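Interim report, section 4.2 (structural modelling).
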Amino acid sequence: MMNTDAAIVATSLTVARGGREVLHGIDVTIPRASVVGLLGPSGGGKSTFIRAVVGVQIVASGEVRVFGEPAGSPALRRRVGYVTQSPSVYGDLSVRDNVAYFGAIVGASHADVDRAIETVGLTDHAGQAVANLSGGQRSRVSLAAALVGSPDLLVLDEPTVGLDPVLRRDLWDLFHRLAAAGTSLLISSHVMDEATRCDRLLLLRDGRIIADTTPADLLARTGAPDAETAFLALIESAEATR
Amino acid sequence: MNPRLTLLTAGRVLRQIRGDHRTVALMLVVPCVLIGLLAWVFTDRPMIFDTIGPALLGVFPFVVMFIVTSIATLRERTGGTLERLLTTPLGKADFMVGYALAFAVVAVLQGVIASAFAIYVCGLDVAGPGWMLIVVAVLDAVLGTALGLLASAFAHSEFQAVQFMPAFVLPQFLLCGLILPRESLPGVLSAISDFLPLSYAVDAMSAVATKTDPFGDVGTDLLIIAAWIVVSLALGSLTLRRRSA
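Predicted structure of the assembly:
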């Protein structure tokens, strides 16, 4: 039976890239209106999983459904906001022109544009060309371009890389506010510290989900003092039973 | 295709070009400099300038838009903006026609300035109506954009994209009738030139320049160019894949 209450359901999702299988039959259900962290080391398949969720990844077998629809189907394009790992915005346009363009595509108003820019803290830079901003500011423009349409699902690939601690905290606060308002969020990170900021955690390593849990449960189960140690303990026990 | 999304995309591309003052200056001034240079070279042979000048007015927009489009689209592919756009309601046709529209607008500007410079400053004699030079130039620009969109799919770096200019454009330039009238080319080359779009761009410009009533000839040429535009855009849209490996 299909679980239509879930935001994302992956069933036996297998993906090959460059002749190598990078996701090995992933089964996972991601709930609505919560902040779900996709954690794991670089090269573990996080970006590939995210690309499959937004429907731009060719899938070898299995499927991903978002809100009950096949990932990437036309009905979802207005409901899913996608922020790629490197900021995908136009360097030669201003912050406002970028957010306004991506916003207009999904029917956002001028007020939505201003609000999205304010949310990421770039109101003072709205008229500046994106190419002249710092790396962290650029990735916030990219985030604003996804927020502007108030999507039901936000899929963020490493959104906090290179941001200072204050901004990182502000963004996580924002993610929780969005979730409280009903938005589903899937956020990837290779920084294990960020695990404790999520409602749920998926640990992805070598193309397999090695844990699907909550931060509290992860620490309790492994008896580890922090997420990094807990993750190491999980990997060691997984390798021991192999 | 959604007209609103197409116009949005055209507006965005124009805003990008407008922000780049040096590119705007190059697009508008370089054709005038080259026309001026050509007029100067043939100071003592104005008949030759009257033959080659209009043809060049057709070649400039084609070449310039081909290069600019293939680089711009390549940047969209490598910079992740194309992948992002393909997860939104924006259709492939909106993307491609948006680009074509934006560069058609630039071509109107370029065509008006270059033609006016050629006629009023360099004394180019045009038998047909001057505005037809602009019409042909705009269609040539859209042709360059359409082929540039297609070519960018085969380039993996900006180095390669720039190399496509000589690869796609120079053979057409050699065979389009500027160097030697097309009917004087060796049989095989003449047949090939009958197939290439730039030949019709140059034919159309020459017809405007030499005939007081060029509408019939130009109409046929423009139809062939339009067919090339449609085919290139259709092939180009096949290379824009929502899903990739």
